[in-house]
Structure formats: C-alpha cells, structure tokens
Amino acid sequence: MLLWAAGCGGSEFSNARSTSGTGGTADASAGTGGSGAALGSAGTGMGGRGGVSGSSGSGASGGTLGAGGTLGAGGTLGAGGTLGTAGTHGTAGTLGAGGTLGTGGTLGSGGIGGAGGCGRVRPGPRMAEVVTPNGSYCIDSTEVTNNDYAAFLASNPAPMGQPCSWNTSYTPSAQWPPTDKGGLPVAFVDWCDAAAYCIWAGKRLCGRIGGGPSAPSERADATKSQWFNACSAGGGKVYPYGTSYNGAACNGADFGATAPIRAGSLDSCQGGVQGVFDLSGNVWEWEDSCAGNSGANDICQARGGSYSSTTSLMLRCDFDQNFYRNAAAVDGPYLGFRCCAP
Known about the structure:
Layout: E1 16-19, E2 25-28, E3 38-39, E4 127-130, E5 137-140, H1 146-154, H2 191-200, E6 204-205, H3 226-231, E7 284-291, E8 299-303, E9 320-324, E10 335-336, E11 339-341
C-alpha cells in the first residue's frame, strides 16, 4: 500500500492541530514533521461509503404427521423485534405412510443491522444497539483486535475501488504479524484497510446515522454522527463515562500504560452505551468522515484519542483528529478502528 510516514522518534502527531466541538484547540508539539501524520481540523466534504447489511427473519416449524394422517400447516411468524431476533427457520413435517408432507412457516422480516439484529453472529467484536430518535443502529463493543483482523487477512480480501484503488494490500504497515498480542486493537492500518474490514464483516465504518458518510462538520452532532452519538450517550456526556475528566478511567496518557491495552479490559471505560468500551483512549478510531472522495490524500477524521493523548481535550467525545486517508506508517500503534451497522 502507499504509505505516509511520520517523523521517527516523535510523539503521537507531528505538529498536529485539531479542533473540538467546543471551539477549543489542542496542539501536540513533540515530534518532527514527517508526512502522513495527523493534520489540522476537519474541513467540509464527504467520506467514502461503508457496507450495508442485509435483512432476514425466521419461520415457524411444521407439525408432525401421524400414520396415515395429514400434516398440520406450519405456523406464521410475527414481525421481527427491534433487535431483529426471531425464531428458527421452519422445517418440513415428517412424512408418514400415505400422509401429506407439511409445509414450513412464513418467513418474517429481520430487525436493525440485518439478520438477527445487533446480536447476530458476525466477524469481529460483539455489537451493541444504539437507540436514537432518528433510528437505531449497532456499534462494535470494542475496537477491532489483531485476532479479528487476522481472520480478515486470511480470507484473501479483494482490493476496493475508489477512493481506495491505490490500496493494493490490507496488511498493517508495522508490527505484523503480532506476537502474543491478539487481544490488542489492530493498528498501523489506513482508512481503506478499516473500511474494507468492516464491509467484509457485514458492517460499515461508523458514519452518519441512517447511512452513508458523516460530514466533518457533524462531528459533535448526536443526531448525525454514529460515533459521537454512541460516545456521548446522545449528546449528554463529555466523556463516555461522564461529564468530568477522570485520567484513571480510560487508557490515555494519564492512565500510565504508555501503550495500547487489551480491548475492552477496562470496566471504568464503558459508555456512553452500556457494554461498549474504549471510546476514549487506547487507539484513535477511523470514522467514515472525510473531506473529499478522490483518493489517498483525502483528509479523514479519527475519534476518541489514544494511549498517548496528553490532554483531556483529546479524549473528549467531541474531539476529532485528522489524518490522510492513506496514513498507516505512523510512528506508533495509536490508530485503529471499530465498525457500525447498518
């Protein structure tokens, strides 16, 4: 893949500057100015599209047939619930001597996020439901891990088209294959790697509620941004765990780990949705929110801060950091992702 390298021995960003939803600014001054590191605040424009999920339902089982009798007709299935859960698919009846073969039930419709809703089995982290006035969606409970990403690579995924036609390999640019680090969030992946994984998993990179990319200007709009809505509990929280900063709650610089930790291992870093972890700290998370849709040099947003974020501002739900779409050869394992659906 084409990579943009940051300055060696630098900090998380090279002369990076970003804006938060509250109008504040933050600079990461350490490091040298290599290309491919973080850029300034988000501009306007739209990002690439993620995948969409299918729908399904289930049927009622047929009756059983007595000797010489007739088989009762299969039941009908009610509409799927909010989570899209339903019964098992209908099966044909057992044929007796001289009897008539029964028929299966009627197939119902699936719920949110495709077949089986947020609880359906898909590759990658378990998903949780996020309910909003504008519709429900699902979000990964943790960042995608090295183990999750290895399964994706083992499937020999095909390259994507525009805006990622330049991206001919999905292999992380460093620290791959991982050594005894399967539960850590995958890092050294660019925007296209993240988007391709989510599509492969039957999900999409988190973007706009209702579908498609989120505009960079919507980064702090809980009615538009899937990522921000989930992190802030619908706009009601500054951090996923509450309204006041707690350096011991999540894996930022104040936590003291100095590196990513196992995804989902901090109960204190749960929220703004129950069962969702690490929306603040650990690794930055790519979002389907880019200024431009032309290729490798588009500017795309990442959210949530990382283990090396030195200010509380960077770890807020409304903060965003900008990277080139092809930024994978950064100077540390601080840039990963999670997926949403649909």
